[in-house]
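Chapter summary example: a protein plus magnesium ion.
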Amino acid sequence: MTSLSAESLPVETSEHVVSVRQAVRRRAVELGFSLVDQTKIITAASELARNAIQHGGGGEVIIETIALQGRRGLRLAFADRGPGIADVARAMTDGYSTAGGLGLGLSGAKRLSHEFAIEAAPGTGTRVVIVRWK
Amino acid sequence: MERIPILKMSGFLLVSIQVDMHDQLAMQLQDDLTNRIATSGARGVLIDISALEIVDSFIGRMLANIAAMSRVLDAETVVVGMQPAVAITLVELGMSMPGVRTALDVDRGMALLNASRAAGDTGHDDVPVS
Ligand SMILES: Nc1ncnc2c1ncn2[C@@H]1O[C@H](COP(=O)(O)OP(=O)(O)O)[C@@H](O)[C@H]1O
Ligand SMILES: [Mg+2]
């Protein structure tokens, strides 16, 4: 995987959720994503950014344009300084929320992405990486 | 604080969301709209989301909450103008938004509200919209 360009944005406030959405849109447009593909990755980014703030106490996202075997894509890596997730499998279940939410953020972001990885060992914060290929 | 305007149009409340809303702004709109339904006695609410580029689970829940609260206040909410890409994404996200009526555009939404107002809701005195 080659990184073509990357930027890092803070994810600390609900205004940052908006700026992350806008930055992801800009990149997706640059990459020539279809409108549906743009909408999917922006929506996934919005869910993960909100999680990093609401459940993870804030962090950052690295937005990266990548290439692999002739394909280009958008990779988003969210990292926060929060408590991590004790039971990741459970957190990934539709409808599961510890915060009175809808519990669709993690599972939905996974469905909206081509690749999804999560590391959330308690004590080290949560890291969620998603990729959507063009 | 920044707010989304609520207009009154032939007895209905009309909200056109033209900005990429952060979460507090969405919550503010939910509160403002609930208050306006109660104080105006409006029987219908149109929420135009044609300018919204995404609806995530938070905004989806806000729309569902507004629809539920308006029902309690004897008003009907119709969400109009959802872009096809937004609808596709919402389904994949897993949000079905039960209880939220939708229409393709403001005209059709208005027609829907007029039709259901004409169709009955008997047993109510019509509250004049102030
Ligand atoms: N960044 C995070 N840090 C800690 N816990 C998280 C994080 N993201 C998600 N979680 C946990 O996973 C659950 C499910 O997340 P999600 O599917 O987005 O639903 P919701 O945000 O509506 O609760 C959350 O309620 C929370 O307990
Ligand atoms: Mg969430």
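Key point: The mean pLDDT of chain A is 97.
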